[in-house]
Task: inverse folding
């Protein structure tokens, strides 16, 4: 039997210090390998396959509780919901009719001007399995993966706007990096003026950086994806401008924004197709003698 | 009834029980909880590692902590090696003073556990900031406090199967 206070003259293998040294070296190696080279992708994939049944099993009581809750909704609730939905549908139908007219006009204008149509509206619905416990990275796991041919890079939206982008595809699940993550940037334009900007996630929020001090931005402006990056389709709502600060000591205006989508809420998300028919980027011209002067109207892709 | 465990006679701990407790902790880690719970949910894997290293240092030590850290890394979709590094260092700290920690009463042990859990978070914040993340905010140090509050309860709970009353 092992007791806590066994004398230590029995051979115990390596000393704790040596073990610690080995473990520390191994974990620092893993950290460097993961952050610099992404070497652990396959390990993570394999492990996530092992974890998937476990995740499903744990999710099961939650899902069952939700189903029971759904089943036990009262008739009055259903009626009220029905009514709001019907009203919404009427509004949407009227809007759609107008949109169809505008859309056909738009298509004919595009063909007249020999522009390629780039909007394709196919999408697949996915359920959020869980949000990662890691507070440093803003990621969620959805229940579709290689089995439904998802690709890294596909944009993910909910009913109100952009949520993020698929960054890792595992056999049965996929990892979505939210727009609030510090590694994600979204090219946007201001709906009111058409001014282009880039939204940077900074971990917990998003902000538009590098807009010149005289830029026409107001609180309440809606930011849409501009579609110039070849990833996000144009016209998806991303964020509202909540505050605009102009400091004389800075060349740029400070724009604080709030995502329109329920980035950390909700159960279902929509995975959109990546933009297709984007022509290859033209070869860079030989380096110009002077550097580019206007930063924020630069059309280069991220 | 005193809190000093060495005075009690306990049945030997089964290896199976240790594995089972770790499995439960991993399951709790994988639970699809709303995002707000991250603000205060204690890290049960870390708590259990501390418990078993204090009570069974011959069976659970740095290597086990490292392995569980890797599992926690995968479960948290964080960075590889972050939890592993923190858990192995804290379990080593426990091993250095294990003879004292085991003699502490529950109150003293709780304070020690609080310090160790805080050390855990500090190491994890440091590794993440070293690899380029922003500081998450001071709430990140709240889970160790709830973890420490749960420590006496956890200790009592894990001792239940090994009280030899039935014999």
Result:
């Amino acid at each position: 039997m092992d007791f806590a206070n066994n004398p230590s003259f029995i051979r115990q293998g390596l000393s704790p210090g040596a073990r610690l040294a080995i473990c520390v070296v191994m974990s620092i190696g893993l950290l460097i390998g993961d952050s610099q080279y992404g070497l652990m992708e396959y390990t993570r994939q394999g492990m996530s396959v092992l974890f998937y049944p476990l995740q499903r099993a744990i999710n099961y009581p939650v899902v069952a509780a939700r189903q029971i809750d759904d089943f036990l909704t009262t008739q009055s609730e259903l009626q009220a919901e029905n009514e709001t939905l019907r009203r919404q549908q009427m509004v949407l139908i009227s809007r759609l009719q107008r949109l169809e007219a505008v859309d056909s006009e738009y298509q004919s204008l595009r063909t007249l001007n020999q522009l390629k149509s780039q909007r394709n509206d196919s999408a697949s619905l996915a359920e959020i399995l869980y949000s990662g416990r890691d507070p440093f990275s803003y990621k969620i796991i959805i229940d579709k993966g290689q089995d439904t041919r998802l690709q890294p890079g596909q944009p993910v939206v909910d009913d109100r706007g952009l949520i993020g982008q698929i960054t890792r595809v595992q056999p049965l699940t996929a990892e979505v990096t939210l727009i609030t993550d510090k590694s994600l940037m979204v090219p946007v334009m201001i709906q009111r003026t058409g001014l282009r900007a880039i939204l940077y996630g900074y971990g917990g929020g998003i902000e538009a950086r590098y807009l010149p001090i005289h830029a026409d931005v107001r609180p309440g402006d809606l930011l849409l994806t501009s579609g110039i990056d070849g990833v996000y389709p144009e016209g998806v709502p991303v964020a509202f401008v909540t505050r605009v600060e102009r400091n004389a000591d800075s060349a740029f205006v400070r724009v604080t924004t709030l995502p329109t989508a329920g980035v950390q809420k909700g159960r279902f998300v929509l995975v959109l197709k990546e933009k297709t028919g984007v022509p290859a980027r033209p070869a860079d011209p030989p380096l110009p003698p002077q550097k580019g002067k206007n930063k924020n109207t630069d059309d280069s892709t991220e | 009834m005193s809190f000093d465990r060495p005075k009690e006679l306990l049945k030997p701990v089964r290896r199976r029980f240790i594995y089972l407790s770790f499995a439960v902790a991993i399951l709790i880690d994988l639970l699809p909880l709303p995002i707000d719970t991250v603000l205060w949910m204690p890290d049960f894997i870390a708590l259990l590692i501390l418990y078993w290293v204090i009570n069974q240092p011959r069976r659970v030590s740095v290597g086990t902590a490292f392995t569980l850290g890797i599992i926690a890394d995968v479960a948290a979709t964080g960075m590889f090696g972050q939890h592993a590094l923190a858990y192995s260092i804290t379990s080593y700290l426990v091993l250095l003073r294990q003879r004292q920690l085991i003699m502490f009463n529950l109150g003293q042990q709780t304070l020690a556990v609080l310090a160790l859990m805080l050390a855990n978070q500090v190491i994890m914040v440091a590794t993440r900031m070293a690899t380029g993340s922003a500081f998450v905010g001071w709430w990140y140090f709240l889970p160790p406090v709830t973890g420490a509050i749960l420590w006496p309860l956890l200790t009592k709970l894990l001792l239940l199967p090994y009280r030899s009353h039935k014999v």
Summary: Chain B is about 65% helix and 0% strand. Chain B touches chain A through 51 residues (CB under 8 Å). Chain B has a mean pLDDT of 85.
